[in-house]
Design a protein that fits this description.
Elements: H1 16-42, H2 47-54, H3 58-66, H4 68-86, H5 88-107, H6 112-140, H7 146-174, E1 182-183, E2 186-187, H8 188-194, H9 197-207, H10 214-219, H11 223-234, H12 240-253, E3 263-267, H13 271-285, H14 288-293, H15 295-301, H16 306-330, H17 336-358, H18 369-387, H19 390-400, H20 407-458
Antiparallel strand pairs: 1-2
Helix pairs in contact: 1-5, 1-6, 1-7, 1-9, 3-20, 4-5, 4-6, 4-20, 5-6, 5-8, 5-9, 6-7, 7-8, 7-16, 11-12, 13-19, 13-20, 15-16, 16-18, 17-18, 17-19, 17-20
GO cellular component, one term: plasma membrane
Protein name: Sugar porter family MFS transporter
GO molecular function: transmembrane transporter activity
């Protein structure tokens, strides 16, 4: 499914009275991004309770946490085709149902195996939301506002992460600081996973209040309906017959890139594809998702009490929002490459300080005071520098760096590499932490350091270049 929509012929602006409507549509679609962030990080509050209730070791626990990422990869790979067949709105509604089912099932598991199954179903919904939200927003937004409205998705993801950690913290306190404490007839961790029903149902309801993508309607021959929706989002001062014809011509011109188009060079893929894969892998191998899936466990392992560990997970997610806003402000001003390099240097410092702090022996089950504060500040520093750089810049690069002819297929391969790398880090962390927590952070520090020469040598700046210039 293409994220582009043909666009000029007077369609560059929207009247203020239409803009409010367009913002509502984009915000409703971005609820999928909110659920993406919420569902992927809410598990942070349940990790230790799941370990205790089912009496499992780190390796098995890691698979239950990481298995959702398999669903993510499948959902992301299939969402485009589903949306092209049945429409963007129906695709959102399917995702909303899957989010809801996953939340209920995860809150009421019979055993570890069905908890893992519900996690996969939720992951499939995340994968769908990661594709359908940005694509739909791009297709309904007036060209003059497309960039800003497109940023709603990323903003919604980081807000979803923050809200999940805030809700987890509140529920833990309501349960007396015990993840397995009784709350509403269930254990606290079950309520944490079940609360996602609320935004999932809201997402489903909002999908009935927004229009189908004009691009999809044109693709299935519903020109009049498409013109009416274009009028709703772009105002009346446009020749809508010409506008529809323009979109039709653009759709006919687009080439469907295939996996075969990516082959070439001396190492299977074309070099530009490997660079995209490299960006995706480095983004994950610095260990960012440890901060969102395991931070409560991490802090508790060095002596922080559960309530404080949940609070620090929330403050980290607030720093993530701040960093994302900084990136959105500066990515077009400073450029993608300088921002990536600034972020890499900051991540090396933060991760190295964490590795140093975790190298000290615990005293009475806690890190020494100095090392504890260094670890806490360094963790926030790491998340800040990731969010203001690699968290946003990699997706911008992947959307811009590939030649038109292979863009869709190359982006699919790079995104798949990202999910696989995410899975590798998520599945390995508990066992690595049992082996040596400081050593684990040394590994993440090395990857952050290696990202600097990788960007300097292989990555070209894409700021200010037309997509047609990429070669």
């Amino acid at each position: 499914m293409s994220r582009t929509q043909a666009g000029s012929s007077g369609a560059g602006t929207a009247h203020p009275d239409h803009l409010g409507h367009v913002i509502f549509i984009a915000a409703a679609a971005a609820m999928g991004g909110f659920l993406f962030g919420y569902d992927s990080s809410v598990i942070n509050g349940a990790v230790e309770a799941i370990r205790d209730r089912y009496d499992v070791g780190s390796a098995v626990l890691a698979q239950v946490i990481a298995v959702a990422l398999i669903g993510c990869a499948i959902g992301a790979a299939t969402a485009g085709r589903i949306a092209d067949r049945i429409g963007r709105i129906r695709c959102m509604q399917i995702a909303a149902v899957l989010f809801t089912v996953s939340a209920v099932g995860s809150a009421l598991p019979f055993a570890l195996w069905d908890l893992a199954m519900w996690r996969v179903i939720g992951g499939f919904a995340i994968g769908m939301a990661s594709v359908i939200g940005p694509a739909y927003i791009a297709e309904v937004s007036p060209p003059a506002y497309r960039g800003r409205l497109g940023s709603f998705q990323q903003a919604a993801i980081v807000i979803g992460i923050a809200v999940s950690q805030l809700v987890n913290w509140g529920l833990l306190n309501a349960a007396g600081g015990d993840q397995r404490g009784e709350l509403m007839g269930l254990e606290a961790w079950q309520v944490m996973l079940g609360v996602m029903v609320i935004p999932a149902v809201l997402y489903g309801l909002l999908s009935f209040a927004i229009p189908e993508s004009p691009r999809f309607l044109i693709s299935v021959g519903k020109r009049e309906r498409a013109k009416k929706i274009l009028e709703e989002v772009e105002g009346k001062d446009v020749d809508f017959d010409a506008r529809v014809t323009e979109i039709e011509h653009a759709m006919h011109r687009e080439e469907k890139s295939s996996f075969k188009d990516l082959l070439g060079g001396s190492f299977f893929f074309k070099p530009i594809v490997w660079i995209g894969i490299g960006l995706s892998v480095f983004q994950q191998f610095v260990g960012i998702n440890v901060a969102f899936y395991y931070s409560s466990t991490l802090w508790q392992s060095v002596g922080v009490n559960p309530a404080d560990s949940f609070f620090y997970s929330f403050t980290t997610s607030i720093i993530n929002i701040i960093g994302t806003v900084i990136a959105m402000i500066f990515v077009d001003r400073v450029g993608r490459k300088p921002l990536a390099l600034i972020g890499s240097v900051g991540m090396v410092v933060g991760l190295a300080l964490e590795a140093w702090a975790f190298s000290f022996d615990l005293v009475d089950g806690k890190l020494p005071a100095t090392q504890g504060w260094v670890a806490l500040i360094a963790a926030h520093l790491f998340v800040l520098f990731f969010a203001l750089s690699w968290g946003v810049v990699v997706w911008v690069f992947l959307g811009e760096m590939f030649p038109n002819r292979i863009r869709a297929a190359a982006l699919g391969v790079a995104a798949s590499a990202q999910w696989i790398a995410n899975w590798a880090i998520t599945a390995s962390f508990p066992s690595l932490a049992d082996w040596n927590l400081s050593g684990t952070y040394v590994i993440y520090t090395i990857f952050a350091a290696l990202s600097i020469p990788f960007v300097l040598k292989f990555v070209k700046e894409t700021k200010g270049k037309a997509l047609e210039e990429m070669g």
